[in-house]
Amino acid sequence: ILATGSIEKKPAVIETEHGDIIVPRHKMFLSLSYDHRIVDGALGGAFLRRIADYLEQFDSNREV
Predict the structure, then answer these.
(1) How many CA atoms lie within 13 A of 16 on its CB side?
(2) How far apart are the first and last CA of the chain?
(3) Model-level pTM?
(4) What is the pLDDT along the chain (64 residues), one digit of tens a residue?
(5) Among this protein's residues, is 40 annotated catalytic?
(6) Which of 26, 35, 36, 59 is catalytic?
(7) What residues contact 28, with CB distance under 8 A and at least 6 apart?
(8) In 16-47, which positions are buried (b, 16+ CB within 10 angstroms) versus exposed (e)?
(9) What is the dihedral of CA 64, 32, 4, 53, to 10 degrees?
């Protein structure tokens, strides 16, 4: 079961050449639940990382 939270603005630390700064960023929680007897935790984590990567690289201007 993949659950997604709502997208919210949250403070985040960004590293710059002049030091760290705090800026508002859009954040969303993802959580995954599965039967550990069937799916290994590393595989579940890799799946969740792949979903997060797709969402982080999403281009709303791309034609489907």
Answers:
(1) 9
(2) 26
(3) 0.68
(4) 999 999 999 999 999 999 999 999 999 999 999 999 999 899 999 999 999 999 889 888 888 7
(5) yes
(6) 36
(7) 4, 5, 6, 7, 8, 55
(8) eeeeeeeeeeeeeeeeeeeeeeeeeeeeeeee
(9) -40
Residue carrying the six token digits 């969402």: 55
Residue 64 in tokens: 């489907």
Tell me which residue has tokens 């034609």: 63
Name the active-site residue from 20, 40, 53, 59. 40
Q: Measuring CA to CA, how many Å separate 51 from each of 11, 14, 16, 21, 28?
A: 22, 23, 27, 27, 12
> Using only C-alpha atoms, what is the Rg of the chain?
16
